[in-house]
Design brief:
single chain; 313 residues; alpha/beta; Rossmann fold; Alpha-Beta Plaits; 2 domains; six-stranded mixed sheet; four-stranded antiparallel sheet; 35% helix; 28% strand; elongated; binds adenosine-5'-triphosphate; binds magnesium ion
Length: 313
């Protein structure tokens, strides 16, 4: 098998007239954490469901761990783990019962299952393991669901928005677990997220999906570099005049209108601040707050899609 664990070619999925995924090419290598970043409705979950063989593509092709998602679905299912966005854990079951059921599903003996539950101690809260899921907090459910997806030691793990709706502490715990799985066992992780910060924090490479199409891909640093080394964020009273004045400046690579300020991409921020201020002054534009920062993935997203990512918890 090649070292590509996920490979898709013009993968598509339509639901009637809705073209949810419109020709996606992905190449995910063994051992990497791949972040699949996009806003609500971008097509992230639809791609995940095709890769884990829950949904058939309506066009293109995909292989996972060297097997075709349509003709060899069974071969794939045994070797992957998935914690889905809409995981519906049975409220009336205890944490232990869920893990035991998952163990049985993958052919583990009861003693192997018990041992595995011990090994997953960082995700399983023992004082709560015999309680009904109905009494668990959102963070506890997510971690239990993650533990369930890991019962059979999968080589490849799919996490669909693992931290959406979690508080910062629970989010940090999930991040820690994802990193440690990847570092200790070399598990390849395909993770979808709406959080730029999360992709930046965890992913070796990021693919940005919007409207069913991949609009950018690279390491977080590559993506940030692609839009210029630094961003000067400046509040002005007259955006039109400022725009014209700045676009004409040689030190300026690009000017975008952000929600509250103009975002000016430049190669050398420190050197560019003064010419930017002088040019705005000469154009009769009055400058409010001005900050210099390195670009974030949010800037990349704006650049690629013309839109800020709208995060809904
Ligand atoms: N079963 C379905 N029937 C009809 N339309 C669907 C179905 N599943 C998804 N869609 C549509 O496909 C598009 C992509 O949905 P998808 O769930 O893949 O987005 P997403 O990126 O996971 O979004 P979110 O961040 O909100 O989870 C949306 O327009 C959605 O309404
Ligand atoms: Mg989704």
């Amino acid at each position: 098998m090649s070292d590509l664990v996920i490979e898709t070619a013009q993968l598509e999925r339509s639901f009637g007239d809705v073209r949810a995924v419109r020709g996606v090419d992905l190449r995910v290598r063994a051992g990497e954490i791949y972040g699949f970043l996009g806003p609500n409705g971008a097509g992230k979950s639809t791609v995940v469901k095709m890769l884990i063989t829950l949904l058939r593509p309506t066009g293109g092709s995909a292989t996972v761990l060297g097997h075709d998602v349509v003709t060899e679905a069974d071969r794939i299912r045994l070797r992957i783990g998935a914690a889905l966005q809409d995981a519906s854990l049975d409220e009336k079951q205890s944490g232990r019962e869920i893990l035991q059921m998952q163990g049985a599903l993958y052919g583990l003996t009861p003693s192997e299952t018990d041992q595995r539950i011990q090994e997953l101690s960082s995700l399983v809260e023992y004082e709560a393991i015999d309680r009904w899921i109905g009494t668990y907090s959102g963070g506890m459910r997510r971690r239990l669901d993650l533990a369930a997806s890991l019962m059979h030691n999968p080589d490849l793990l799919f996490l669909d928005e693992p931290t959406t709706g979690l508080d910062p502490t629970s989010r940090a715990m999930v991040w820690e677990e994802v990193r440690s799985l990847n570092e200790q066992f070399g598990t390849t992780i395909f993770l979808t997220t709406q959080y730029l910060e999360e992709a930046d924090e965890l992913a070796d490479r990021v693919g940005i999906i919007n409207g069913g199409l991949i609009v950018g891909e690279g390491t977080p640093d590559d993506l940030k570099r692609a839009i210029g080394a630094d961003v000067i964020q400046v509040q002005v009273d007259d955006a039109e005049a400022a725009f014209a004045a700045l676009e004409a400046l040689p030190v300026v690579e690009r000017v975008e209108r952000g929600p509250r300020a103009l975002l000016v991409s430049v190669t050398d921020g420190a050197a560019a601040v003064s010419p930017v201020v002088v040019a705005l002054d000469a154009a009769g534009v009055s400058v409010g707050e001005l900050t210099l920062r390195t670009p974030t993935l949010d800037d990349v997203f704006l650049e690629l899609t013309g839109d800020r990512i709208e995060v809904s918890a």
